[in-house]
Please model this.
Amino acid sequence: MFISTLDLFKVGIGPSSSHTMGPMSAAYMFREYLNSHFLDQIKPTWQVCCTLKGSLAHTGKGHATDLAIVMGLHGYLPTELSHLDIDVLSASLMKRGRLILDNACTLKFNVVENLIFDKEETLSQHPNGMVFKLFDAEGMEQHSEVYFSIGGGFVNTASEISALEAPINMQSLEAYPYPFDSANKMIAMSISSGLSISEMKQGNELSLVKNKSLAAKELDRKVTEVWQVMTACIQRGLDVEGVLPGGLKIKRRAKNLYQMLQSQPELSNMNDYLCAYAMAVNEENAAGHVVVTAPTNGAAGVIPAVLYYFLQHENGDDACVHDFFHTAAAIGGLIKHRSSISGAEVGCQGEVGAASSMAAAGLCAIKGGNVKQVENAAEIALEHHLGMTCDPVNGLVQVPCIERNGFGAIKAYTAASLALRGSGEHFMSLDNCIEAMKQTGLEMSIKYKETSLGGLALSHTEC
Ligand code: SF4
Model:
């Protein structure tokens, strides 16, 4: 299956790709359906209701799912928010009790009455379900749509998710020149074609367009933009102090940590810097500010921290940025295709674990690793996240998420280093490791899959 580099790395807002960005996109889709099918019928006495199911109901408040639904219904998409003041916009929208559709007709949507957190029922197809309904003045249902937020900001309708063997949203690889859907095939195709993973990935990205040189420039421009947003996010996070929203009173630490490292260089090391950079991003994410999914919001700090450290501290060349992202995306695509990148489906092994694996592969590639070493780096990083649960305290993407990204970055760097010191031959293949992750996720209790019903989420004592 094909998944684009630009689908895995999407600009949006925090704190969660599955609980914030996905629901915002789903609400926008429902709004667009009303715009295209009901504009001439809707009256001011009609209303929209949204019911959140499963993990979205349990941890939606902490993940700003309510705000995301409101923003989407008002016509905002995650990708269009980077130049807006999110705090001001959200304060204004949450107070409104009505939606305005394209022809200026209005209908009721009051977040207190019309947004329901249904913790009793989880839809069978996926843990992150949303049911949108349109009611007329008499309370008769005029239209209903079910959407699923399947991780990484992707959304499926009920028919789409039912038609898929696994809850994924990708195109068949048949039409692409390098149709690798496993790590073993990726290695074989790289060796037979003489191309790197990044070159094959870019070949696939450009294969379906007529004007390849124009499309190649556009792809480069968009990847550069992704890196610029990530860099700006790190730098903002290193420059801001204060308490994160949500009620846990968690203080931002990245700025203070970074200042300590700079003032005491003899006492600072690579691990400290990786933590500072990753935590800077995840503190921005927890604040609901602009981040890039990598491959999710909760794991958004790992990949930028690794690349930023390489460029800033190891004299990395900016020219390697594109190879880093395309290699990382190839690995992320395999994990998403063969397992999942959603904490609600497989726990945190699918979020920080996947991000660490992708970062390790990207770093190994730009440090000169061959395809077998890159696959080895991805496998090592993923292997040492297997079984990691998702148990965010109070449903907020703060504890353990912020620090965990720092550790994901450290593991990625170590995995790339280990792989580069080896020949590429190794015992456990990436394909087998991804399969183990999938099985572990299937057998993991629902308590540890983004519901905040177990683990650290229950070990927290209010004070
Ligand atoms: S614990 Fe991991 S998967 Fe769960 S919300 Fe935090 S970063 Fe995401």
Observations:
- The beta strands are 11-13, 47-53, 98-100, 106-108, 115-118, 129-135, 141-151, 154-157, 290-292.
- Residues 298-299, 343, 348, 351-352, 390, 392, 397, 400-401, 404, 450 surround iron/sulfur cluster (CB under 6 Å).
